Amino acid sequence: MAAAKCGRWDDWYVSAQSIQKPENPTSEQTLATTPRWERRAIVDLANVRENVKRVAELVAPAKIMAVVKADGYGHGAVAVGRAALQAGATWLGCAHVTEAMKLREAGLTAPLLAWLHTEGTPFEEAIAANIDLAVSGWELDYVARAAEAAALPARIHLKIDTGLGRNGSTPAQWDALLGRAASYQEEGLLRVVGVFSHLAVADEPERPETDEQLVAFGEAVALAEDAGFDLEVRHIANTPAILTRPDAHFDMVRLGLGLYGLSPFNGESPESFGLRPAMSLVSRMANVKRVPAGQRVGYGLRYTTTEDTYLGLVPMGYADGIPRVANNAPVSINGKTYLVRGTIAMDQFVVDLGPDIDVDEFLGAEVILFGEGGPQVTEWADAAGTINYEVVTRISPRVPRFLVEGTWGESGE
Length: 413
Ligand SMILES: *Cc1c(COP(=O)(O)O)cnc(C)c1O
Known about the structure:
Layout: H1 7-17, E1 39-44, H2 45-59, E2 63-67, H3 69-73, H4 77-86, E3 91-94, H5 97-105, E4 112-114, H6 123-128, E5 132-135, H7 139-150, E6 154-159, H8 171-187, E7 190-196, H9 209-226, E8 233-237, H10 239-244, E9 252-255, E10 279-284, E11 287-291, E12 296-297, E13 303-304, E14 309-314, E15 330-333, E16 336-341, E17 349-354, H11 359-362, E18 366-370, H12 377-384, H13 388-393, E19 401-404
Parallel strand pairs: 1-19, 2-3, 2-9, 3-4, 4-5, 5-6, 6-7, 7-8, 8-9
Antiparallel strand pairs: 1-10, 10-18, 11-14, 12-13, 14-17, 15-16, 15-18, 16-17
Helix pairs in contact: 2-4, 8-9
This protein binds pyridoxal-5'-phosphate.
Residues 67, 69, 115, 198, 238-239, 254-258, 264 line the site of pyridoxal-5'-phosphate.
């Protein structure tokens, strides 16, 4: 194979070799000891920190909960959580207790909330690990029993459904939930430290339902306070509400997408909010070959070349979390944009490089699917008929996460 031209990314590779190992290295670091790479998700923790600082300016004096569920939206929960706490976030949040336990095992001791449970959730272990638990209704008795077994009071956040229609107590059942929680609290089995809710349409600021949800939230909080609970935190804002609804910030905001430097709004870039995307997804060209006009490409033969051209093969596919439907998504190679052609396969996809390339410059060259120096995550989301949240979160474990510290922008061409 011809020598690849890959100065810029190799600079990052070299500098990343020299980055300090965190106290608790995880599988995310393994690529730093791998001599060559074919696929990688590069996560710039300096950008994560900048995003936290930017959001802190917007929400102060409200606190920031860094939401690192789903392995930190695919970026690496432990590394991102640690970076967020270093930059001023004071809470961590996850969907599942099992996710929260991994953060505790990695040595993160910050206040930590898990909010999605089933009867099989290890509540007792959660209480022993000082993990706060969301309660929407049925969980209350389970949590109280687990607290009894653990011989420790549980810290709970009562969740009110203000309109999303997912988890949370209905307003009709709220009074009864407060009453049951109060009697457990009197028994010393738990402490209600928070009341929270989740917004449905904050990413569509022109819609009226966010106002309605905030009114309903205010009423639920007032009822909880009337019931005698001394609340540490009231919280409802997700990233879109953080960016556009100061009246939703309350005591704490739950920062997910914005932590990773992505924008929740259609047509509004992260940069317009002062956010920096943290992840770049990069591969290397596995093959380049000249084909005649009329060459058909990929399973189903759904693309046909219109002229003599070069086809490039990129060794990433849906097993890596690349959406199979993302036909015509852009990639950047040697500073130019090319489009995915034909059906994306499990391990690979094809780009049409046109008739006028120098094969030696392309074989082995880096292919930026999105991120620094390449397309935006939203361009892949648009090609796949989905949202940027899903694109980054679904990048699979086959893609090594490669952590860098502010090498972004410092490495010259
Ligand atoms: C995922 C999640 C968030 C974070 O939402 P973003 O829009 O990514 O900021 C906040 N709260 C709850 C309950 C969530 O499930």
